[in-house]
Amino acid sequence: MLPEMREKAVHTCRDCRFFVEIQGRWESRSGCVAGIPRYGTLERRVPPMIHALEILQMAGRDGLQAALEGGHPDNPACGLFRPRSSSGQARGGGVPGEKNR
Fold first, then answer.
1. Which residue of 14, 36, 66, 67 shows the fewest CB atoms closer than 10 Å?
2. pLDDT score of 93 more than 60
3. Is residue 64 part of a domain?
4. pTM, full prediction
5. Could you report the per-residue pLDDT of 10-54, keeping only the tens digit for each?
């Protein structure tokens, strides 16, 4: 198995940065926004929650429906998998309030 395929086979949709909560008028559902061009190409930062109206404006009704169909957190990751960024690791981690020596 190729190393890059192993990463996708081990992770689930829940671990992907494109897996977000889509907030509607009365309820929220999980979905995958990798098919929306602005988010899929990482032109815009992918927030943890997106309003359905915003997706409707960018991708239309078909785009919203496709995003909601991809909302299965326990499915194996697809070929567009990108791991969620961890806060703290990007800045070097460490204990807050403690100076580095």
1. 14
2. no
3. yes
4. 0.70
5. 788 888 899 999 999 999 999 999 888 888 888 888 899 999 999
Measured distance CA(35)–CA(18) in Å, rounded = 9
**Helix (H) / strand (E) containing 22:** strand 19-23
The parent domain of residue 46 ranges over 16-69
In single-letter form, the type of residue at position 32 comes to: C
The first and second tokens of residue 20, run together, are 């977000």
The reply to whether 28 falls in a domain is yes
From residue 8, alpha-carbon distances to 24, 27, 56, 73, 78 in Å are 30, 30, 29, 14, 7
> CA-to-CA distance for 82 and 33, rounded, in angstroms?
12
Q: Is residue 84 part of a domain?
A: no
Q: Is residue 82 part of a domain?
A: no
Q: How far apart are CA 33 and CA 18, in angstroms?
A: 5
pLDDT at residue 8 tops 60: no
